């Protein structure tokens, strides 16, 4: 792939899709390098004047009142990194690590961090060799920087801790030798600058936004297939109806369902039926899906703003001031991720209700539990129970993390954001939603193929069924469903479902 450049260009979370699929190559613009160099010169000038600078010639947090002798300033930075690498839990995925390193460089490129360019160059070497620090998932409260996770990142940069290289785990020192790199020797402010920042939280936010958009599109597709399979009305999705509401997401979702059902003989077969109204979970798809779409859009703006912001402390200003602020605080990311969590939970909640409607037989139109031999066979009864359990779990997980705070650092960090947890539980919710949608899709396709087999479904429904016909076995009666659900979920999350319909149906994008 073409190298990505660190520059002043504005970045969007969609620019990071490839980070999750393959190693990346980057370089840095001359102007960005110039800003980094100029910032370092300013810091050195201020330091040589004898001024007290937080984290440069003082201790940290509650220890900031303690002055550090000049001959210990570099050791101060190394000690900081080692002591802050205190995370626990499973390692985060490679895509997130690549993004964290890249985001750190983006922040440095603004020219407010005071680090030497050699540190930025060292991070570039890590990225270009795809040497990825092993970063535990737990340990940050999202304030004063994502200290523990970024501590593990920084630990690898100085040659300690562990990394992955070419798919294997190594001691960092071993991996560096393999590519001819040396451990980095930290100088003033550089350890502090590495661990201060929202890069860990923001990387999770990027993943949540990418998955959120994908799942929102899939929810419209799967919801439309359920409308078709349940003999619900297509007419309620007409654009003219939804133009009377001013919510963009609602209009987008309605257009999607309308387009997906175009040409369906199943839809046409009941155009003159006497049913007055369908349940909310069907006719209100645009209202619920649309509200969640709009919430995702709002959260995305916040994540984009954070991607393109300076996230460090203290700040080295162009006028020669070195000022402590709170740009490491993740409150914006935390609230955005809580918004994502709530919006995604609603996708799962309404999907579970549509599954329930199938289970009770669509008011007598379909067999109960979509069983071809009710009583002898249970059909999809317990698949629905699984969906219900996950929808309930999501309700608990969607409680906001950003409203919580537990003071740290002896009370100096007295109000924290909990941004990492807000993002991590949003990802958990998304995984649950993907499973719920997979169950809904399996049930809907079973109705299409077993009950409406003499009628042609829409071309979109046919393409989705053709994609999954070897993954699911709707014609085989009672069977173990766990693997089918997991396979369909993976097809949703890896984008296969959307890829299958993109050539034949243009969905409304975000």
Task: Give the structural class.
Answer: mainly alpha
Total helical segments: 19
Q: Report the biggest beta sheet as strand number plus sense, adding barrel if it closes.
A: 3 strands, antiparallel
The CATH architecture of the largest domain can be given as: Up-down Bundle
Question: How many beta-strand elements?
Answer: 9
Summarize the structure.
It contains 19 helices and 9 strands.
List the helices and strands and how they pair.
Layout (H helix, E strand, L loop, with lengths): L3 E3 L19 E3 L1 H19 L24 H12 L3 E4 L2 H15 L8 H12 L3 E2 L2 E3 L8 H11 L4 E4 L2 E4 H8 L10 H6 L3 H31 L9 H4 L5 H13 L4 H4 L11 H4 L1 H23 L7 E2 L5 E2 L7 H29 L21 H17 L21 H33 L7 H10 L13 H12 L2 H6 L9
Parallel strand pairs: 1-2
Antiparallel strand pairs: 3-5, 4-6, 6-7, 8-9
Helix pairs in contact: 2-5, 3-4, 3-8, 8-10, 8-13, 8-14, 8-16, 10-13, 13-14, 14-15, 14-16, 15-16, 16-18
